[in-house]
Specification:
heterodimer; A: mainly beta; 13-stranded mixed beta sheet; elongated; B: nine-stranded mixed beta sheet; globular
């Protein structure tokens, strides 16, 4: 068995929803049936094998190859298995993911990991805005699992996040952790303006006091928080900077906010 | 001139006393005719031997346009994402389950054999928007009931003890200005009272600011509607919706009309007692008994059916109370131009929830206990009790006792134990279903040329394949004609048409504008002349729909 490879014949000009091409949905389907699945490209309807060249046979291990920046909802809702994107991916990578692993070697578009409940997503490059955030109308963004970003994250990282962890090795944009309900976001680089706007609960972990803090965050002094050593230990071995943290370095400066809401969220600045 | 012939169908036409008689039907220029002239050729003949033929169904209470429906749509993008409707060669793409887009609503209604639907809570200030949405709804005839009763101007008139004639003129002026076919009152005076921090308003309780009681409002409006000769009785969403023990308020509301015609809408939500351990019980038998006794009273049920929907109501007092029960938990409770309000709360009715299960049973009890199908109407108060697409399922519940009892066995056992539903043997006949979904709504609203199949009637005709499974039968008619054109075949749209807009234009003393104009200039966000919707404008915003004005015979 070798990975089932979807190689784009040419980069589509319009966005294409490929959410149904995931290991859980394809399990047990013969290749001929997979090739016949219809995809909407603009107003045209194409068969999978018109858009992609197919090779390999393992439906539990999918690989997308070519310029995939217009492919949306890659790996959406899958329960188990592995999806790899060689290069960039479009929006909604891993929407509603329940289990398994998605890895993208390039960048991912907006709303990566939205509604994700379990499993793991690794983006080697940057993610667009609202990664782990809620799409309009949804009450919750990411609700479980782990999102690893090797590069930078866009604005509104983890908007309305409910549970799970997001680790960003680069920088994050404005309004990081906005309207967060619970969960953990750690950013190794800098944060944009007003992190934690409307944050109810949850934890933001950063390396330096953000340049533009909301007045709704209150300095609560330096603390040595035991749970951090457990948290760091759980990250040990992950790709990126968080896999190499010193588990004993758990003194932080703690800011509580957003006082405009419940004020039970925390922003921890590592010492 | 072309004549269409429907040959050999079994016609059920209660308005003309026809029950399952084999008859040919001829249609010329969108109208039913007795027979073609001798020199006329039949241009299209449909052999429908053995099929059931009825006039197009009419939904007399369905929220399909206006402010709150649009808020529900905006608020529930997941409802739209989760239920996409793809375009076809004929039809355009649309979406939505509980709060469908206008296109999906029109197509789905037509595919079920409905040819008309009436928006029951058309806020005068939103009339233009509502008509534009209904105009954008294909396939269907539409109309609206203008909402009065919590508007500042009427309440001021009642405070000032203006005579009934002045109120009549204001009501008639409103019907003309908003191009509507009836008057509705929602939780009389309470939408206003909510703004003065009242969270409950009983029938004889005074509005804290105006001192006016709901009873007084119902008296004034039901009399106005009656004296103006508007066919549609006052459409009343009574006080205390959803409150355990509200049956007394509901019975009191019937009395408040003082013998004049009154229509109580979604009466299921107003038929609750306080018996049992949980202080929530069915009062369906008292309500049904009252309807059976009082011939001036009509009601539609507002049946709930289990599943996800959204409740959209002008009753902000009730919706404010319900907001915490929303699922998903979000809501909009708002005031609209100080004249009314609105509350939108998404809701999921669960069959294992005691209250929801009992609500389900109460609705069915009312259907089965009210004797006269001419005075009880089949609605789910779309989308408040369930989306209108559940009507075929509801018809099966009413026509098939064993199916109903099988469903009853699956609901919350405590609710089942408290309901008399299992002991009710009645099964609705096709004739009775035709009454409550066609003949009776047309008669109630005063649509002289709809809801029946006699010569002269508009050729809104539905042909069903007889099927012992009534759900299957009613969800997919074989043929649907709208104004003489074949629009649906085998449950699929074959032609997209525009419906008509039904209105009434009662006469009134134009002198009333001397009172209304300064009020608009002083308090309103638009001028009176801009508030009024002209005939040409209505047809234009309806994409060229026809205006049908129904006669009013002045009384008193």
């Amino acid at each position: 068995m070798s990975a089932l490879l979807f190689t784009l014949r040419s980069a589509p000009a319009q966005r294409v929803d490929v959410g149904m091409l995931n290991p859980s949905a394809l399990a047990g389907q013969p290749l001929a049936d997979i090739a016949a699945i219809s995809l909407h490209v603009g107003k045209r309807v194409l068969r999978v094998d018109e858009l992609f060249e197919l090779s390999g046979d393992d439906t539990a291990d999918l690989v997308f190859r070519g310029d995939c920046s217009k492919l949306e909802r890659i790996g959406a809702g899958m329960k188990a298995g592995r999806v790899t994107v060689e290069g960039d991916a479009g929006a909604y990578v891993g929407q509603g993911l329940l289990g398994g692993t998605i890895s993208v070697t390039g960048n991912a578009g907006a709303f990566c990991a939205t509604g994700m409940k379990g499993g793991r997503i690794e983006i080697a490059g940057d993610v667009g805005e609202s990664a782990g955030g809620a799409i309009p109308g949804e009450m919750k963004g990411m609700a479980g699992g782990l999102l690893l970003v090797g590069g930078n994250a866009g604005d509104r990282l983890g908007d309305r996040m409910r549970r799970g962890q997001i680790l960003v090795s680069g920088n994050a944009g404005d309004y990081c952790g906005t309207r967060m309900i619970a969960g953990t976001i750690a950013v190794a680089g800098s944060l944009g303006a007003y992190p934690g706007y409307g944050m109810k609960r949850g934890t933001l972990i950063v390396d330096a006091v953000p340049a533009r803090m909301l007045p709704g965050f209150v300095d609560c002094g330096a603390h040595r928080l035991g749970f951090l050593s457990l948290l760091y230990a759980s990250w040990k071995g992950l790709p990126g900077v968080f896999g190499r943290l010193d588990a004993s370095a758990c003194t932080v400066r703690r800011y509580m906010g957003d006082m405009g809401v419940t004020g039970r969220g925390e922003l921890l600045v590592r010492g | 001139m072309s004549v269409i012939k429907l040959t050999g169908g079994r016609v059920i036409d209660p308005a003309n006393g026809v029950n399952d008689q084999v008859r040919d039907i001829y249609v010329r220029d969108g109208r039913i005719v007795a027979a073609p002239d001798v020199h006329e050729k039949v241009s299209a003949e449909y052999n429908i031997a053995g099929r059931i033929v009825m006039s197009g169904a009419i939904d007399m209470h369905s929220h399909i346009g206006g402010g709150k429906v649009n808020i529900a749509r905006e608020m529930l993008p997941e409802d739209h994402r989760g239920d996409p409707v793809e375009r076809t060669e004929l039809t355009r793409s649309s979406c939505g389950h509980a709060a469908p887009g206008t296109l999906a609503a029109g197509y789905r209604y037509a595919e079920m054999g409905y040819t008309a639907a009436f928006e029951p809570a058309l806020l005068p200030m939103n009339a233009r928007q509502a008509h534009m949405e209904m105009g954008d709804t294909p396939m269907l005839d539409t109309g609206g009931y203008a909402m009065l009763g919590s508007d500042d101007l009427l309440l001021r008139m009642l405070v000032a003890n203006e005579d009934q004639q002045t109120i009549n003129d204001y009501v008639a002026w409103t019907l003309n200005a908003t191009q509507t076919v009836g008057i509705k009152v929602v939780n009389p005076g309470a939408i206003s009272a909510f703004k003065f921090n009242q969270r409950k308003l009983d029938l004889d309780e005074q509005n804290a600011y105006y001192g006016v009681t709901p009873r007084r409002i119902i008296q004034a409006l039901s009399r106005a509607v009656h004296e103006l000769g508007v066919p549609k009785p006052l459409h009343v969403h009574a006080s205390n919706l959803g409150v355990p023990g509200n049956v007394d308020t509901t019975l009191g509301t019937m009395d408040a009309a003082e013998g004049l015609p009154i229509h109580l809408t979604h009466i299921q939500f107003h038929s609750y007692g306080t018996e049992g351990e949980r202080r929530f019980s069915s009062a369906a038998s008292r309500i049904a008994e009252a309807i059976n006794r009082q011939k001036n009273v009509t009601a539609d049920v507002g049946q709930i059916l289990f599943g996800q929907t959204v409740t959209a109501s002008g009753d902000n007092m009730v919706q404010y109370r319900n907001a915490d029960h929303g699922s998903p938990k979000k809501s909009v409770i708002m005031d609209i131009e100080c004249d009314a309000g609105c509350g939108v709360v998404p809701f999921r009715y669960k069959d294992q929830n005691f209250v929801n299960a009992l609500q389900w049973a109460i609705g069915l009890e009312i259907f089965l206990m009210v004797d006269d199908p001419w005075r009880i109407f089949l609605t789910t108060d779309h989308p408040n009790g369930a989306p209108f697409t559940t009507y075929p399922h509801l018809i099966k519940l009413l026509t098939d006792r064993s199916f109903r009892n099988a469903m009853l066995d699956t609901i919350n056992p405590d609710a089942r134990a408290m309901s008399a539903l299992g002991s009710l043997d009645r099964e609705y006949s096709l004739y009775e279903i035709a009454i409550m979904t066609r003949a009776a709504p047309a008669k109630l609203i005063g649509l002289a040329d709809r809801g029946h199949l006699a010569p002269g009637a508009a050729a809104d005709i539905v042909v069903y394949r007889e099927d012992a499974d009534r759900e299957r039968m009613f969800e997919k008619p074989e043929l649907v004609f709208k104004d003489g054109e074949l629009v649906v075949r085998d449950g699929r749209i074959v032609k997209v048409v525009r419906g008509n807009t039904h209105v009434v234009k009662p006469e009134f003393d134009i002198g009333i504008e001397k009172k209304i104009r300064p009020y608009f200039e002083r308090f309103h966000s638009v001028r009176m002349s801009n508030f009024k919707i002209g005939d040409d404008e209505l047809c234009e915003c309806g994409g060229g729909s026809k205006l049908i004005a129904h006669a009013c015979r002045k009384r008193g």
